[in-house]
Fold this protein.
Amino acid sequence: MNKIKDSVQQVKAFAPATCANIAVGFDILGFAFDKLGDYVTLKKRDDQKIVIESIISEETLPFTTQQNTASLVIEKLCQELSLDIGFSIVIEKGIPLCSGMGGSAASAVAALVAFNHFLKEPLSLHELARFALMGEQQASGAAHPDNIVPCLFGGFTLTYSQNPMKVIQLPIPKLYCVLLHPHMHVSTRSARDVLKSEIALKDYVKQSAHLASFIAALYEQDDNLLSQALVDDLIEPQRAQFVPNFYKIKEAALQAGALGMSFSGSGPALFAFAKTEQAAQAIGQAMQKPLQEKQIESNYWVAPISKNAAHVVFEGE
Ligand code: HSE
């Protein structure tokens, strides 16, 4: 049976940026931030090739299909479903490279969501997540789910099992997020390479308490508890070296009223939570100053956490 719809010739999908870890949930927590994201368009071809037609990006990205997460996941999917089909792929990068805002996940997810629209019987989000993980494995050397899951599901997510994939959609706090991008590159691979592979029992106990109280704060809608819980004693100290003046930035954010601040994913992007949009703007500006002292430019976005998951924006016949 032909699994592909005859009527659809091209599909364009959007996938949001994501903030992973959120200080307390290394490799398991994440949320979607749709002020920025990637677009991927898939166009049916007459042959069975997967070809990257163009990449619209301020930075140079690989055109080889195995090195780009969007094309890689489509190749894997076509192989696994034994589909005799080819696509030309257009990638529009809205998420800066090596920024810690889930760029590799967004390209893979946008491609998968577009692809799913060609199928007569679409795959579930859990199935799509399995393929997106292959992209993360390629991009960072580790199949961490905490960017692709919030990207696919939207909102605030906890991935509590990877095989099989099991996801909880957590309550979304009524807060504004500041996502600050220092203009520098840190690859997830190198930010993972510095991490110790073992932790002391006493550190495990402390960090478990932070994670548990953070989750409780989400369900209780308790901003004070959320603020107290938002502490990373495990990963953040090992990665602080990647952003000059990291602790000054953190202090500036907290002084300006942030409920907490840490790395977005593996950094160098940083997130902070604020109670109001006005406070979030002030926090963003305060966080930029210690970077300016080190001659590092930056920009930031302010938005609530997004309920919106990756989605199709255009379908052409
Ligand atoms: N959990 C991953 C890490 C996220 O911190 O390495 C990468 O964006």
